[in-house]
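A student in our group prepared the protein record below, which I am reviewing. This is what I was given:
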Amino acid sequence: MNDPALRRRLAESRVAPLVSLPTRVAAVARHNGHQLASSASWLVRSREHTNYTYDLEPLNLEHLAWFVADLAGRDVADARSAIDEVANDRDLTVHLSRAYGESPRRGLMDREIRLGRRVGWYALVRLLEPEHVVETGTDKGLGSCVLAAAVLRNGHGRVTTLDINPAAGAMIAGPYAEVIDLRIGDSLDTLAQLDAIDLFLHDSDHSAGHEARELAAITPRLTETALVLSDNAHVTWELPRWAEDHDRQFSFFAERPRKHWYPGSGIGAAIPA
């Protein structure tokens, strides 16, 4: 249909929805076909059943650099440099690959190391240089090691990571274990024992109720300039509500995974206003 006048008449007519239906069907089919292909590929090549790992789209990495720069109050070039630093950290890659091979849970892990939004966690620790980083939800320990790598580069600080599963933290070993305190038990009980939290990351039970209880537990334990992050802010309202109640600014980075069926999660952040 190359006649502009005819196209205009059809677009303004009662049959416009019917005429446009093939184009709309084709658009949906292309999208669903891509999703189906990504899903089938992942089912064949991946072993993961939760906490999926993937790379980010190149443009999404640039968005992440700007997000990190804004939170840290630094130039975006510094954020890009920190992201590149962890992406090219050979020692970390070798350690994680070795930990994979030695893990009793390797049947549920992928050999290829993909950090996704965790490169943003690393960059924030590098640029803010917190003395005490607290993470809830250790799982295999991938994120814990990324946080520890940043602490080691800074030359100071510690990471406290909490999980209720006694098998958690399989990847925590070597020099990374030297700056990580792994605590097993209910996160709320452990958080009540901590002091002076400079950077907090909620990544445990992703129910809204538990997230709210963790935020309440850390509130009196945060330092004046503490950064609070949530790995669940794409699902619940808890962090933005908490930020507003405590005169903080909330922002969110949305992931765009590269060649993966999962749509991504993101990083929710609350900083002092």
About this structure: Residues 16-45 form the longest helix (30 residues). Residues 95 and 174 are 8 Å apart (CA to CA). The chain has eleven helices and seven strands. The beta strands are 132-136, 158-163, 180-184, 197-202, 222-230, 248-254, 266-272.
